[in-house]
Amino acid sequence: MTTTTPWTSTAAAALADALETAVHHRGVPGGVLLLGDCAGTGRLVHARGTVAPECGPAAPDEHTRYDLASLTKITSTWALTGRALTDGLLGLDEPIAARFPELPCPEAD
C-alpha cells in the first residue's frame, strides 16, 4: 500500500526558492511548481520566468506544458525505480526480460 506525505511549507518553500534561483541565474527560462495531493487539497502553484525564449515574454502558469527532455526522463525514471525497489516490486539484479517477457530479446535473434 502506498501512502502519501503532505508537502510541508518548508519543503514547498525550498522548491520555490530553487525555481527562483534557477530562473534568476538563467539556468532555465522559467518553470512551474505545482504541489498538492490526489485529493486536490493543499494545492500550491508557483510560476516564474517565461515559458521559453522563443515564446517571447509569455509567462508560464499551471496550464503550461513543457516538453519532457532527456534529463527529465531519467530523473523521473530513477525516482520511480527507487520507489519500486523500496516497495519490493523490482530487484536491481533482476533481468529486464524477467519483468517484460513480451519485449524482444537481443540474445534470441
What does this 3D model show about the protein?
- With 109 residues, this protein is of the alpha+beta class.
- The chain has helices spanning 9-24, 70-86, 96-99; strands at residues 30-35, 44-49.
- Strands 1-2 form a two-stranded antiparallel ribbon.
- It is extended.
- The model has no long low-confidence stretch (mean pLDDT 82).
Q: What characterizes the major β-sheet?
A: 2 strands, antiparallel
Kindly, what is the distance between the CA atoms of the first and last residues, rounded to a whole number of angstroms?
A: 39 Å
Cα gyration radius (Å)? 19 Å
Strand tally is: 2
Measured by DSSP, the beta-strand proportion falls in: 5-15%
Low-confidence stretches: none
Number of helices: 3
N-to-C SSE string, H for helix and E for strand: HEEHH
Shape descriptor reads extended
Oligomeric status? single chain
Quick check: average pLDDT? 82
Placed side by side, the strands forming the largest sheet appear as 1-2
Q: What percent of the residues sit in helical stretches (DSSP H or I)? A: 25-40%
Structural category is alpha+beta
